[in-house]
Write a structure and sequence with these properties.
2 copies of one chain form a homodimer. By secondary structure, chain A is an alpha+beta fold. Chain A has 2 domains: 95 residues, Phosphorylase Kinase, domain 1; 203 residues, Aminoglycoside phosphotransferase (APH), C-terminal lobe (Aminoglycoside 3'-phosphotransferase, Chain: A, domain 2, Alpha-Beta Complex). A 5-stranded antiparallel beta sheet of chain A has the order 1-2-3-5-4, covered by helices on one side. In chain A, strands 6-9 form a two-stranded antiparallel ribbon. Chain A has a two-stranded antiparallel ribbon with strand order 7-8.
């Protein structure tokens, strides 16, 4: 198996001695998640995911991520819930890595979501924003403007080799965003990565939200921009304003979007596309030979950024 | 996802229209199997594996492999069972590849099997041999001496770079085996790859045998040699004759091992270790950049081959 970290059944047995979740019936590495090793575990008491945190997820951040999932689940959000061991801890060490056992959510992520799925995702995002309120811990967004600057510097020398004009596109957009990035919009806990991969459906019903490992404190409207960016562009690069209107309507059914948030949307959309352009470009230029998942093409987000740079007002996004 | 072939939920929905196995609840690429893309599929009617056949499994061989699993399952062997579609076919095309939906078996493969697991595996192997009797189709072993010669020729120029003396070790062993390889032993359907990975246990009970994609017609005792080779060496390279005796006793509880088979065992063990040495060496020298599974170290089987070359009689193996 080429999950990053190999976990044998014997390792699993050792781990499960500390938990009260039954006898294992099945245990398989799954090809999911870029950042971590994930295993599907079925016991006679239920289905679980064992996640081992590799590379980018810092152990110091685990109390935030795992605590957040507990906080959200307690407020009715369908998200993975960390299982506590017999000592009450929600993570343990497995093969020298921090690992957590989480409840498994049924459902399937869609590659080609339709209008009503976008509506459901918008509504779920606003529910997350509301439910995050009152969470005791906080975590700054490591992938805000300062993080973009670091990634831009690290990728700049080789950006042109990926696509002509890419270095300049990034430099110009970043300079503008560093100057004009909004500062006074409503903030809270954001998911920060609510791509279609991270939303599960059973039939047409949204059954869960997963992968909270980019969650942080930041502007709520930026989270909506990230979600619009990942659900409402067609594969040919066209912005589908009908899907966007559905998503915005879903969001608004739970939380009011302020005028200041709407006015900032063109900038937030540029920021969202620059953020994913930069991380994808970095991963593209620095591929991990052990990764289970191929790097995603950064040019998809270069195209979205170019589109966003020509948008004059939030109305063009469906607001 | 970096399963070889990416299957979206929408592809899955299209495929499932041809089957009568319920509504999907969960669908995940799993990091299992070197040769194929495998997906875990749960529906409201049960758990299944979707396998897409890549590279080495030829479509022409599917009637043999899938028919064999049906034949064995009908004779009480716990193995994956192909699900037939509404037209009665046991495979279909998915994304340009042949694919089959198979029943999912609970159970976990062991990395460090103990004596009683070896006993159970030996017994299961002999049951397979008995149950294969009467299967209408046949398939020659592509990885017998003629196949070894091809692999030896293909790997010879770079074998020394992997380990000093490896080219000569292979050449000498192959020359002997081509000359003396047994021809008159009892034959039948063999699994040909019954490694611990391919045997599932629930607790101490053997719950199933999987991965029939090397199955073929060949000498039954060769299959026992392959199984002894993969279960009864310790990780330091030592042959564990206690485990071997357990495996042999398990096998004998179902099928008599003939004197001629016992006498041939030193040669068969050399052949078994050369076969896995050669395929691993080939994969090591020709890694597939898209593979989910890292190539296995050929030197493990070079060590086993060197051990086997010094064995004088079957008694040393526990017979």
């Amino acid at each position: 198996m080429a999950v990053y970290t190999d976990v044998t059944f014997e390792d699993l047995e050792g781990l499960l001695r500390g938990y009260d979740i039954g006898t294992p019936l099945s245990f398989k590495g799954i090809a999911e998640g870029v950042e971590n090793s994930n295993f599907y575990l079925q016991t006679d008491r239920g289905a679980f995911i064992l996640t081992l945190y590799e590379k980018r997820v810092k152990v110091d951040d685990l109390p935030f991520f795992l605590g957040l999932m507990e906080h959200l689940a307690a407020r009715g959000i369908a998200c993975p819930q960390p299982v506590r061991d017999q000592a009450g801890k929600n993570w343990s060490m497995v093969k020298g890595r921090a690992g957590a056992i989480l409840s498994f959510l049924n459902g399937i992520s869609l590659r080609r979501p339709e209008n009503h799925h976008c509506q459901a995702a918008g509504e779920a995002l606003a529910r997350l924003h509301a439910a995050g309120d009152g969470f005791a811990l906080s975590r700054p967004n490591a992938l805000g403007p300062a993080g973009w600057r670091e990634l831009a510097d690290a990728t700049n020398p080789r950006a042109e080799a990926v696509q002509g004009g890419l270095g300049m596109l990034i430099a110009d957009a970043l300079a503008e965003l560093e100057k004009d990035w909004p500062r006074d919009l409503p903030t809270g806990i954001i998911h920060a990565d609510l791509f279609p991969d991270n939303v599960l459906f059973m039939g047409d019903r949204l059954s869960g939200v997963i992968d909270f490992y980019f969650a942080c404190n930041d502007m709520l409207a930026y989270d909506l921009a990230v979600t619009l960016s990942s659900w409402c562009f067609e594969s040919d690069g066209a912005y589908n304003v009908t899907k966007a209107r559905s998503m915005i309507a879903g969001y608004r059914s739970v939380r009011t979007i302020t005028d200041a948030e709407i006015a900032a949307m063109p900038l937030l959309m540029r920021g969202a596309s620059l953020r994913f352009l930069l991380t994808r470009l970095y991963d593209w230029l620095n591929p991990d030979p052990n990764a289970l998942v191929r790097p995603k093409d950064p040019r998809e987000y270069a195209k979205k950024l170019r589109f966003n740079l020509q948008v004059k007002s939030a109305g063009e996004y469906g607001f």
